[in-house]
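Hey, I was hoping to borrow your eyes for a little while. A protein chain has come my way and I'm curious about its shape. Take your time with it, there's no hurry, and the full record follows here:
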Amino acid sequence: MIWFKPYTIKDWEGKDIDTIHKSLGIEITEIGEDTILGRIPIDKRTQQQLGYLHGGASIVLAESLGSIGSAMIINPEKYIVVGQTITANHIRPGIKGWATGKAKTIHIGKRSHIWDIEILSDENKIISTCRLTVAVVKKP
C-alpha cells in the first residue's frame, strides 16, 4: 500500500463543499492499494456545446484524482501537494452517463509524484488518458 495511512472514501466526504468537485458532481468511488477511482457526470455542467463531455472536465477529474491520491501519500502534518503539470489525449467523446477515472502512480519521489489517469465511459471505452505531475512542498 502506498498511502500514508489507511484511507477510506469517507475521509473525503464533505471536503468538496464550495469546490469545483461539488460544482461538477465529481465523486470518489474507490481507493485501492495503489489506485484511486472517481467519476464525473456527463451532463449540462460538464458538456461542451455539442453535448459531449468537455475535455476540460476530463482534465479536472484527472487532476482531482491524482492530487487527492498524492495527498494520501504524504504526511499531511509536514507537506502539501499541488498540481504542477498535466497533459491529456482525448481519444473519443463521452456522450452520456458517467466518465470514470482511474489514477495510478508511476513515480513517487520526495518532491514529486507522477500519475497516469485513464478516463473511461460507462461502456468501458477510453475517453481520455492523462499524465499528471504533482509537486510535494513543505508546509509553510
About this structure: Residues 28 and 116 are 17 Å apart (CA to CA).
